[in-house]
Specification:
By secondary structure, the protein is an alpha/beta fold. The chain starts with a helix and ends with a helix.
Length: 418
C-alpha cells in the first residue's frame, strides 16, 4: 500500500475509534444526566424548605451542592459535544469579528510576552455555526496555545474562505464517512451514528470558512497528536485541565458539518484549523419564545412518561408544584393502554429513551396521530437518534438536567403560550 493509502487507512481507523468513543461518551452522558436530574431536583426542593431557608448553616451547604450539580451538567455537555448529541442553534457568524473580540479579551489576561495576531481575508463570508459553541471552541484552543508557550511566543489567527478542502481535511471527512458506514452496517441497526454523513451536507457543498490558530509553542509528538481529540486525554499536570477542550471542539465542528485538522511538531508549534460551512443564505438563530406566566399551568392535565423512577419522582414533584394534574407511567405501552380508557391529556411529557420498550418519540407519534390536539414535550439526556429526527421536527425538547423553572418554560413553549 502506498503512502497515501496508508494515511487514508490510518485516518479511517482513527475515525472509527473516535465514533466508538463518541457512542460510549454519549451513553455515559445520558445516564449521568438522569442522575443529575435527581440530584439537582431534590436539592432544589430541599433549598425551598422553610427549615433550610431559616438555617444559616444549612443554606450554604445546599447552595454549594447545587453549584456542583450545575458544574456536573456542564461536564456532560462537553461529553455530548464530543459525541455530537447536543442541540445546536446555528447562525451566520462573522468569524473575524468573533476572533477580534476574543483576542482583545486575551490581551488583558495573558503574559505580555505572548503576541497575538489576526489576519483576515477581505470580505470573508460568514460561516454557519452555533456562535456560543464556536466561541467556546476558539477560546479553548487559544488557551491551549497559551499553555504551550510558557515563556511567551506568538498566537497567529487567520480567517479565509475555502472553496476546496486541503487533502488532510478532505481525507478526514472521507474517513469519517467510511467509519459511519462501517459502524452502521456492523451492528445491523436502523440507527446511524450521526444525523447526516458530513460529506453529503448541503452547507459543505457551498464551500467552507477556514479558521486557523497557530502558535509557536512546544508542539506535540506524533503519539500525542494521534490522541489529541480523545476525551479526558491531556498531557497537562493534574488539576490543570480536563482533557475535554479539543475533544469538545472536534464534536462541535463535526456536528456542524465541518471538520478540524491539527498539525504539530515538537519544537515547531501547533496549528489548529476549523473548517466550517460557508453561509450561503440567511440563517437565523433560533430564539425561544418568551415564556408566559406559570399561572397558565394551574389545573393543566398532564401525562408524564418516564422509565427512571427517581427521575419520575422529581418530574412529578415539579409538575404538581406547578399546579398540574398528573398521570404518571413508566412506559409508553402503559401510557397508551391508559389512554384507551381515559380522556387524553392537554400535554404529554415523555422521556425520549424509555428503556427497552417504545421510545418517547414513537409514543408521541402514536398520541398525536389519534389525538392531534395533545401538545408534546420530550425530555432527553442527549440528542435523539436520527430516526427520531422527523418526529422531533415540531416537538419541544427539554434537556436534562433541568430545574422546575426550566420545565415550566418548556411546557409553556410546547403549549404555544408566550
Amino acid at each position: 500500500m502506498n503512502s497515501a493509502g496508508n494515511t487514508e487507512e490510518q485516518l479511517r481507523q482513527h475515525a472509527q475509534r473516535m465514533e466508538s468513543v463518541g457512542q460510549l461518551t454519549g451513553g455515559m452522558a445520558h445516564d449521568f444526566n438522569n442522575l443529575l436530574t435527581v440530584i439537582q431536583g431534590n436539592l432544589q426542593a430541599l433549598q425551598e424548605l422553610p427549615s433550610v431557608q431559616g438555617d444559616p448553616a444549612t443554606t450554604p451547604l445546599v447552595n454549594a451542592a447545587l453549584r456542583a450539580a450545575r458544574r456536573g451538567a456542564e461536564l456532560t455537555r462537553s461529553l455530548l459535544a464530543f459525541s455530537r448529541r447536543q442541540k445546536l442553534a446555528p447562525a451566520a457568524v462573522d468569524a473575524t469579528e468573533m476572533l477580534r473580540a476574543l483576542l482583545a479579551m486575551l490581551r488583558r489576561t495573558v503574559d505580555p510576552r505572548m503576541q497575538l495576531e489576526l489576519h483576515a481575508a477581505a470580505s470573508c463570508p460568514p460561516c454557519v455555526a452555533d456562535p456560543v459553541l464556536l466561541e467556546a471552541a476558539l477560546l479553548n484552543i487559544a488557551l491551549n496555545a497559551r499553555d504551550a508557550m510558557p515563556d511567551g511566543g506568538t498566537l497567529s489567527c487567520s480567517v479565509a474562505p475555502c472553496d476546496a478542502l486541503p487533502e488532510a481535511a478532505q481525507a478526514d471527512i472521507d474517513a469519517a464517512g467510511a467509519a459511519h458506514s462501517v459502524a452502521h452496517s456492523a451492528d445491523g441497526a436502523a440507527r446511524a451514528l450521526d444525523a447526516e454523513p458530513p460529506e453529503t451536507t448541503e452547507a459543505g457543498a457551498g464551500g467552507f470558512v477556514a479558521i486557523a490558530l497557530r502558535d509557536t509553542g512546544t508542539g506535540m509528538p506524533q503519539a500525542v497528536l494521534e490522541r489529541v481529540f480523545e476525551p479526558f486525554y491531556t498531557t497537562k499536570e493534574p488539576g490543570r485541565g480536563t482533557g475535554l477542550g479539543l475533544s469538545t471542539a472536534y464534536g462541535f465542528v463535526k456536528q456542524s458539518q465541518g471538520t478540524i485538522v491539527v498539525e504539530s511538531e515538537p519544537g515547531r508549534g501547533t496549528c489548529v484549523t476549523l473548517y466550517l460551512p460557508r453561509e450561503r443564505r440567511a440563517v437565523a438563530r433560533t430564539v425561544a419564545p418568551r415564556a408566559g406566566s406559570t399561572g397558565a399551568l394551574q389545573g393543566l392535565d398532564a401525562m408524564l412518561v418516564e422509565d427512571d423512577l427517581e427521575v419520575m419522582a422529581v418530574s412529578l414533584s415539579f409538575l404538581q408544584h406547578l399546579g398540574c394534574r398528573v398521570r404518571a407511567y413508566a412506559s409508553g405501552e402503559h401510557a397508551l393502554l391508559a389512554l384507551e380508557r381515559e380522556p387524553p391529556p392537554t400535554l404529554l411529557v415523555s422521556d425520549v429513551a424509555l428503556g427497552e420498550g417504545m421510545r418517547g418519540t414513537e409514543l408521541a407519534r402514536n398520541v398525536q396521530g389519534r389525538w392531534p390536539q395533545v401538545a408534546v414535550l420530550l425530555m432527553s439526556g442527549y440528542l435523539p437518534e436520527p430516526n427520531d429526527g422527523a418526529t422531533l421536527a415540531g416537538a419541544e425538547v427539554l434537556t436534562k438536567p433541568f430545574s422546575r423553572e426550566e420545565l415550566a418554560s418548556a411546557m409553556l413553549r410546547a403549549l404555544g403560550t408566550t
